């Protein structure tokens, strides 16, 4: 029987690379995607479906989490809060969605228990994470312990974070090395047709490509 892994897949570059690493490690991938009222929800969903097709994923979940728009508090889910376009600044940015990864991992754990999966892959990146508190190694280790404490005795789930210590340039290089279809991915916080190029996510992505001496294959405004 093949070993199974739940891959939390937003359709962005990091989660996509993480999923390809899972495949290369011999896991049967069960992909999970969350529609949580983010500004680029439709474009991210398209990226998820395109990547799943490329990965030949047979089993996938598209899960709606409507309450994030209800609580607001993030520029990604509240239309009244502007997405910052003036560069990464110290502290937790307004694009942080409260406890998002904790909620994603909790739901993914329920799916993992149902599917008898032994691992969950998530593409968190500590160094380039814009200061999000739910992207750190320490947080992932704590929630892994809580998940295994709160599931059946026979359930043993590891949380794999293959990118957590990498810089964006290293992520780009690794993705190119593994022939990850980066043209299918989407990272922009603001736009769905052409990436804005100025939000934190676009800046981090473009900077990663520049440092890796490579060209980003997705379309950007004005380019």
Mean pLDDT: 95
State the low-pLDDT regions, or none: none
Our estimate of the beta-strand percent is: 5-15%
What structural category arises from helix and sheet content?
alpha/beta
Strand count, sense and closure of the main sheet?
5 strands, parallel
Give the total of domains: 1
The CATH homologous superfamily name equals: HUPs
- Write down the CATH topology: Rossmann fold
N-to-C series of helices and strands: EHEHEHHEHEHH
Taken from the alpha-carbon principal axes, the silhouette is globular
Number of helices: 7
CATH-derived architecture: 3-Layer(aba) Sandwich
Outline the secondary-structure elements:
Blueprint: E1 4-8, H1 13-24, E2 28-35, H2 41-55, E3 59-64, H3 67-71, H4 100-115, E4 119-121, H5 137-149, E5 158-160, H6 168-177, H7 200-211
Parallel strand pairs: 1-2, 1-4, 2-3, 4-5
Give a verbal description of the structure.
This protein has 223 residues and is an alpha/beta fold. It has a single domain, classed as Rossmann fold (3-Layer(aba) Sandwich), CATH 3.40.50. 37% of the residues lie in helices and 11% in strands. The chain has seven helices and five strands; from the N terminus they run βαβαβααβαβαα. A five-stranded parallel sheet has the order 3-2-1-4-5, sandwiched between helices. Strand 4, helix 5 and strand 5 form a beta-alpha-beta unit. Helix 6 crosses helix 7. The protein is globular, with a radius of gyration of 17 Å. It starts with a strand and ends in a 12-residue tail after the last helix. Its EC number is 6.3.4.20. It catalyses: 7-carboxy-7-carbaguanine + NH4(+) + 2 ATP = 7-cyano-7-carbaguanine + 2 AMP + 2 diphosphate + 2 H(+). Pfam families: QueC.
């Amino acid at each position: 029987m093949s070993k199974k892994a739940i891959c939390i897949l937003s359709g962005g570059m990091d989660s996509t690379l993480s999923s390809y690493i899972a495949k290369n490690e011999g896991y049967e991938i069960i992909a999970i995607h969350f529609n949580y009222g983010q500004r680029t929800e439709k474009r991210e969903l398209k990226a998820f479906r395109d990547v799943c097709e490329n990965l030949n994923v047979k089993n996938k979940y598209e899960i709606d989490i409507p309450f994030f728009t209800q609580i607001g508090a993030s520029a990604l889910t509240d239309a009244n809060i502007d997405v910052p376009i003036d560069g990464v600044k110290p502290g937790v940015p307004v694009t942080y969605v409260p406890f998002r990864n904790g909620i994603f991992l909790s739901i993914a754990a329920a799916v993992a228990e149902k599917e008898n999966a032994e691992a969950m892959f998530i593409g968190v990146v500590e160094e380039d994470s814009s200061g999000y508190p739910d992207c750190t190694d320490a947080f992932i280790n704590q929630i892994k312990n809580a998940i295994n404490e709160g599931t059946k005795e026979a359930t043993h789930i590891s949380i794999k974070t293959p990118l957590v210590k990498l810089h964006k340039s290293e992520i780009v290089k690794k993705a190119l090395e593994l022939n990850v279809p980066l043209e299918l991915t989407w990272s922009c916080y603001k736009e769905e047709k052409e990436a804005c190029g100025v939000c934190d996510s676009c800046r981090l992505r473009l900077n990663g490509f520049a440092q890796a001496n490579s060209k980003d294959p997705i379309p950007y405004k004005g380019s």
